[in-house]
Design brief:
The chain has 471 residues and is an alpha/beta fold. The chain has three domains: 73 residues, no CATH class; 119 residues, Aspartate Aminotransferase, domain 1 (Alpha-Beta Complex), CATH 3.90.1150.110; 247 residues, Aspartate Aminotransferase, domain 2 (3-Layer(aba) Sandwich). Helices cover 42% and strands 18% of the residues. It contains 20 helices and 17 strands. The strands form five sheets. Strands 4-12-11-10-9-5-8 form a seven-stranded mixed sheet, sandwiched between helices. The protein has a four-stranded antiparallel sheet with strand order 13-14-17-16. The chain has a two-stranded parallel sheet with strand order 1-15. Helix 7 packs parallel to helix 15.
Length: 471
């Protein structure tokens, strides 16, 4: 019987001794020797610290130690990036990965990852090719552009265009369009880093054609219009129509650039959704270059797409920064697959997850809420109340910010003074499930908007593991 903490610490086995155990050898074969050794040392240090008090000294429990070691290794090597249930009510949630890929795109990515592909190889001519060619033809068909290229996101697209066409010169932009996107990333900052000078014209709420005409000078390199996709200015407002800006740009001999931000390749109104400007419309109105995102309303992978005049696109391609901003083969494989879906707009809502979720009928979501509700009530086990509710979803990622979609979900509420803290505990408990459930807290209630709940069976199946901290 060990009587002192010092004796207990001396009784702890050495790392070398533990490495000779058969159970540890199995862990080494699975996780690798460096990580296993690191974990064993950390656990032994914790045991030594715990035996500083003689009252807690005990014999070394080899089986318990191995169980702890195995559990820690499992936690340490679990993927950090994991699936979650997006029940926030925001379909294109930036923090949750934005657009979901169709299965066809996932299969295309797998092929590109596991096999050599003709990324920059012209199979017809047997010589070096251009990686953007795999998606350029589809972008040309879908937008009517002369040429197109792809970079890693829309901020990069704007950056490349400005750095190429307006380095050390001025770009005219309406003061009401100086947007800030996620992460406090502002359009003026992008322009400054691109090496051009922002020249604001007009006022926050009203800008006229004469404002642009008076601002054009020998130092003007481009006129730019930025679609205010993540906010709206209402009331006493005025903006210059794109055809008028395009005509002024042609008259003064400078390019007219339109940044659509989110961007969509079809008219959303045909699917019963609010209008969103398209690249085709911008080009038809006279834009020389149009930039937009691939992973927002378009429903594809993260990418920045630039379409427009052949001569301007050629200049962008020659910019050394194009190589630094290019996308990889997986992105191109997914993007090509998604763009092909747009060639069949009659089936697009069924095949493209983003559009399917945005157009999901309200009665369908309400029926799902009624089915799921009893399982949520059972999992709560009296700790809180749950009820089906009507609510509103939003598109997200800066798309159509003032337009909401009627939806349905489940609200979980407590009673009394601890109502708010209970919502926080419920939120934490749901995030701790094998597939974390991400909702939102509003007015002391935890809200689960079910618009994006695809795998109902998996969601219900794990509710039995819900453990809410009772205080």
């Amino acid at each position: 019987m060990l009587r002192t903490a010092a004796a207990a610490r001396r009784a702890l086995p050495s790392v070398d001794r533990l490495l000779k155990l058969e159970a540890v050898a199995l862990l080494v074969s699975r996780y690798g020797r460096p990580l296993v050794v690191e974990t064993i040392r950390a656990l032994l240090d914790e045991r030594r610290a715990a035996t500083a008090d003689a009252s807690v000294a005990s014999r070394f429990d080899e089986s318990g130690f191995m169980a702890a070691c195995t559990a820690r290794l499992h936690r340490e090597t679990a993927p950090s990036l994991k699936p979650v249930f997006n029940l926030t009510g925001t379909v294109l949630h930036t923090n949750l990965g934005r657009a979901l890929m169709p299965e066809t795109a996932a299969r295309a990515v797998t092929r590109a990852m596991t096999r050599p592909v003709n990324l920059e190889f012209d199979l017809g001519g047997g010589a070096r090719g251009e990686r953007d060619s795999h998606v350029e033809r589809w972008l040309r068909k879908l937008t009517g552009a002369e040429c197109a290229l792809v970079v890693n996101n829309n901020a990069a697209a704007v950056y490349l265009a400005l750095n190429t066409l307006a380095l050390k010169k001025e770009v005219l932009v309406s003061r009401g369009e100086l947007i800030e996107i996620g992460g406090a990333f502002r359009m003026p900052d992008i322009m400054a880093r691109a090496g051009c000078k922002l020249l604001e014209v007009g006022t926050t709420n009203r800008t006229h054609l004469k404002d642009f005409a008076q601002a054009v000078s020998a130092r003007t390199a481009a006129i730019m219009k930025v679609h205010t996709s993540n906010y709206a200015i209402q009331g006493f407002t005025s903006a210059v129509p794109e055809p008028e800006l395009a005509a002024l740009a042609r008259e003064r001999g400078v390019p007219f650039i339109v940044d659509l931000g989110s961007g969509m390749l079809v008219d959303l109104e045909r699917y019963g959704l609010p209008h969103e400007p398209t690249p085709r419309a911008a080009l038809s109105d006279g834009a020389d270059l149009v930039t937009f995102s691939g992973d927002k309303l378009l429903g594809g992978p993260q990418a920045g797409l630039i379409v427009g005049k052949r001569e301007l696109i050629a200049r962008l391609r020659r910019n050394p920064l194009k190589r630094a901003l290019r996308v990889d083969k997986m992105t191109l494989a997914a993007l090509e697959t998604v763009l092909r879906l747009y060639m069949n707009p009659e089936r697009l809502a069924a095949q493209l997850p983003t559009l399917r979720l945005l157009t999901r009928p309200l009665p369908d979501i309400q029926a799902q809420a009624e089915r799921v509700l009893p399982h949520v009530v059972a999992a709560l086990d009296g700790t809180a109340e749950a009820r089906a509710i009507t609510t509103h979803s939003q598109i997200g990622s800066g798309s159509l910010p003032v337009d909401l979609l009627p939806s349905a979900g489940i609200a979980i509420t407590g009673t009394g003074k601890r109502r708010g803290s209970l919502a926080e505990r419920i939120s934490a408990a749901l995030r701790a499930l094998p597939v974390p459930v991400i909702g939102r807290i509003k007015d002391g209630a935890f809200i689960m908007d079910l618009r994006c709940l695809d795998d109902e069976a998996e969601f219900i199946g794990q509710l039995g593991r819900l453990k809410i901290d009772r205080v």
